[in-house]
Amino acid sequence: MHILAFVNQKGGCGKTTTAVNLAGALAARGERVLLVDLDPQAHATMALGCAVEREPTMIEVLADELPLERVLRAAPGGVTLAPATARLGEYEEIAMRTLRPQERLSKALDSVRAQFDYCVLDCPPRTEGVLALSALRAADTAVLVIETGAFALQGALKARTLLAETAAHLDRPFSLRAVATLFDKRSRIARELLVGIHAQFGELLFDTAISTSVRLREAAALGVPVQALDTRSRAAIDFRALAEEVAQHAHTLEALSATTPQPRS
Ligand SMILES: Nc1ncnc2c1ncn2[C@@H]1O[C@H](COP(=O)(O)OP(=O)(O)O)[C@@H](O)[C@H]1O
Ligand SMILES: [Mg+2]
């Protein structure tokens, strides 16, 4: 199971949209995909149309009250969802009286490792909190989501520095990738920004940039990944291409770690 965490300290840059629709595109390729909502805003849960009433969610898993298996739900587009509610915010407080709280997510994910090919973690905008730290501790790959808009490059460079600092404190390495999103190819400024992002991130940047698409907003409103709404749309094509690149990246890392074993708790 390859674990990807979608990160950026900035809100509204497309983390949730990218996480949900990449999960949908991987599932459409026949992969077994788990999407874990790690944001107390629960946008990924809502974007998959899952209304949580009294069912258990990620807070019960992180609080060590339930195994992860018990909160999994079948979501649209063939994705399995581990949902969240606002209660997930309570984990910050629980973490203060817990030994190595950032390891709980990794342990929970270990318990379902054989059931999934990919796990996608949708992270909160707060990068200094225990939820984001847990995601990075668990991740094989952290994907920095970069909005192709004004000041995005500065924000992305700051995010890369923060990620490098966090990585230095973790006992388990993650590989870094970046994806550009909210790209409007008709805008000259956006095209220039994309060139600038590529100049800074080089090979770390996936070749696929996710275009701005009204279909993605519609899909979120309807509670489905865009693949399930309109498989021929620009957005569905973008996410298919990204899924292909992500799969190649995961296979390359897997082949590498088969030759150099990584420590796992
Ligand atoms: N590629 C895109 N095209 C159009 N709208 C998008 C795209 N990506 C994100 N959005 C919209 O932008 C807003 C913020 O995106 P979201 O994925 O929730 O960001 P984050 O999770 O980083 O806060 C949402 O309303 C979402 O529907
Ligand atoms: Mg979000």
Task: Explain what you see.
This protein has helices spanning 15-28, 43-47, 58-62, 91-96, 104-110, 130-138, 152-169, 188-201, 214-222, 226-229, 234-259; strands at 2-7, 33-37, 73-74, 80-82, 118-122, 141-147, 175-181. By secondary structure, it is an alpha/beta fold. It has one domain (2-248): P-loop containing nucleotide triphosphate hydrolases (Rossmann fold), CATH 3.40.50. Strands 3-4-2-5-1-6-7 form a 7-stranded mixed beta sheet, with helices on both faces. Helix 1 (15-28) crosses helix 11 (234-259) and helix 5 crosses helix 6. The longest helix is centred in the C-terminal third of the chain and has 26 residues, at 234-259. The model has no long low-confidence stretch (mean pLDDT 94). The protein binds adenosine-5'-diphosphate and magnesium ion (MG). Magnesium ion (MG) binds at residues 15-16, 39, 43.
Q: Outline of this structure?
A:
The chain is built from eleven helices and seven strands.
Write the layout of secondary structure elements.
Blueprint lengths: L1 E6 L7 H14 L4 E5 L5 H5 L10 H5 L10 E2 L5 E3 L8 H6 L7 H7 L7 E5 L7 H9 L2 E7 L4 H18 L5 E7 L6 H14 L12 H9 L3 H4 L4 H26 L6
Parallel strand pairs: 1-5, 1-6, 2-4, 2-5, 6-7
Antiparallel strand pairs: 3-4
Helix pairs in contact: 1-11, 5-6
The site of magnesium ion has 4 residues, from helix 1.
Keywords:
single chain, binds adenosine-5'-diphosphate, 11 helices, Rossmann fold, 265 residues, 44% helix, alpha/beta, binds magnesium ion
